[in-house]
Specification:
Helix content: 40-55%
Radius of gyration: 16 Å
Order of helices and strands: EHEHEHEHEHHHHHH
Number of strands: 5
Distance between the termini: 30 Å
Number of helices: 10
Length: 211
């Protein structure tokens, strides 16, 4: 699995720690991890709005399979991601959230709070979240006696989102193009995206923004 990490400006100082824990856990399981920043406060500037656009482009183009993101509370990043078609982002404060999201919702993105409640041993909480996020089976439902309706409801929810969403490219073109251009503007994003994008139409759109 290819996993992208992306964090907004207010939490850039924690990027090295978060990326280290993600690479240790997910990389140790054989997954490829791409750190798309912000790696420090002087890096290509990203807000949580940009994070949702980046997640949409990466996931819908199949450049990556999963996105780990977050902001101060995690709420803005989650809301920004879930606005986009093809992105199913959970809100994760502790390891049990990651486990339950995997089992019940089986989505493709997690938003973490990197400031609120992030105190002593915060790096351990992040590590254990990643362990629950990337180990074991997914989408089996929870608890066992509710497994089948949980799977069914997750499928129905995904169908409702697909029905009410615009086409990916139509949606991206409807956004302020300067926002999208900033979202795809970093070298790290472009290296990850163009190396692994499987949807030529999305690649052409991104190229048109960068030309």
């Amino acid at each position: 699995m290819k996993i992208a990490l992306m964090m907004e400006n207010s939490q850039a100082a924690k990027n090295a720690m978060v990326a280290g824990e993600l690479k240790s856990v997910a990389g140790g399981l054989g997954h490829d991890v791409f750190n798309l920043g912000m790696v420090d406060e002087n890096d290509h500037h990203l807000t949580y709005i940009h994070l949702g656009i980046m997640a949409s482009i990466l996931l819908n183009s199949k450049a990556v399979d999963f996105v780990v993101t977050g902001c101060g509370t995690g709420q803005g990043a989650m809301m920004s991601c879930n606005m986009h078609p093809g992105v199913v982002c959970g809100y994760c404060l502790e390891p049990s959230d990651a486990f339950l999201f995997n089992q019940i919702n089986n989505g493709n993105a997690l938003a973490l709070a990197f400031a609120k409640g992030f105190g002593w041993a915060g790096e351990l909480n992040v590590r254990y979240i990643f362990e629950k996020a990337f180990t074991g089976p997914r989408g089996e439902g929870y608890p066992v006696e509710r497994a089948e309706p949980q799977k069914r409801n997750a499928s129905i929810l995904n169908g409702v989102k697909a029905a009410v969403s615009k086409d990916v490219l139509e949606g991206l073109r409807s956004i302020d193009q300067e926002l999208v251009k900033t979202a795809v503007g970093s070298t790290r994003f472009q290296e990850c995206f163009f190396a692994h994008c499987q949807v030529p139409e999305i690649a052409e759109y991104v190229k048109s923004l960068l030309d």
